[in-house]
Amino acid sequence: MNKRKLVAGNWKMNGRREWVDSLVRGVRQALTEQPYDVDVAFCPPFPYLFDVGAALSGTALKLGAQDCSERTDGAFTGDISATMLRDMACDYVIIGHSERREFHGETNQLIASKMVAAHKAGLTVIVCVGEKDAKMDATTRNAIVKEQIRQSLCDSADAQNTIIAYEPVWAIGSGLTPTNDDIVTMHGLIAGFLPLSVKGARILYGGSVKADNAATILQLPGVDGALVGGASLKKDDFIKIIAGAG
Ligand code: PEP
After folding, report:
1. Given ligand 1 and candidates 14, 67, 172, which is best to mutate, with the most ligand atoms within 8 Å of its CB?
2. All domains of the chain in start order, with CATH
3. CB 62, CB 52: distance < 8 Å
4. What residue owns the CA closest to ligand 1's atom 1?
5. 128: which DSSP letter?
């Protein structure tokens, strides 16, 4: 089982061509000079997959996308199939991000269908789960996360092709994070709750991982990496986060 930590940068809807190139080549250069025993993935917006893929070519750095259609190729204007992402040399696809759930009404059932399509195409999914409200009591929070996992995982999920990202929605982009104890407890709960075929899958933490808290969060028991939003857009911060995982 690959339990090397994974640090994945989710750029969301950010980037310009020139900027993309300098960021990716900058990270690439820094990691060539000072490598870490960590898997690293870049998940840019769709239009930049080609450029980022080209900048990563010949390195161990991986490419990922932020979403995929649940459908295979065909008359679905505006959609992007998992097969296309694989064709663009993606290894990963994020599905079920809270911003997709909130702004596109994505349900656990749809996310499970996307997972089927992604696995069929040979992609590893990073499926996001997490409670919305920081004030939620632990029993409710645990029940919500368990239900998201139960309903979002499809039958083809296994410990290699599926990664869980625990992302409390209130922590995303807010500068807030759960306590270390709460992160450890939730990761333990998720690990224990995973069905047999998915047992041992990597469980990432996401939500305001920054250069200054990454090393602490990434060394907590049960934390197998991080899904990083805002801080993945800054070369030095992203490198510090990767170093924190190493
Ligand atoms: C995310 O969007 O997945 C995320 C974790 O964002 P941020 O790191 O900015 O909180």
Report:
1. 172
2. 6-245 (3.20.20.70)
3. no
4. 229
5. E
- Say how many Å lie between the CA of residue 75 and the centre of ligand 1: 32
Confirm if 145 and 131 have CB atoms less than 8 A apart: yes
Amino acid at 237: D
Residue pointed to by tokens 């820094």: 30
| 11 residue type, one letter | W
Going residue by residue through the chain, which has 246 residues, state the pLDDT in tens, using 9 for 90 and above: 558 999 999 999 999 999 888 999 999 999 999 999 999 999 999 999 999 999 999 999 999 999 999 999 899 999 999 999 999 999 999 999 999 999 999 999 999 999 999 999 999 999 999 999 999 999 999 999 999 999 999 999 999 999 999 999 999 999 999 999 999 999 999 999 999 999 999 999 999 999 999 999 999 999 999 999 999 999 999 999 999 999
Whether the Cβ atoms of residue 211 and residue 240 lie closer than 8 Å to each other: yes
Q: pTM value? A: 0.97
Q: Which residue is it, tokens 């990434």?
A: 218
**Tokens standing for 102?**
């909130």
**Pocket lined around ligand 1, Cβ cut-off 6 Å:** 10, 167, 172-173, 206-209, 227-231
H helix count then E strand count, the chain? 9, 8
Give me 225's structure tokens.
Answer: 């990496």
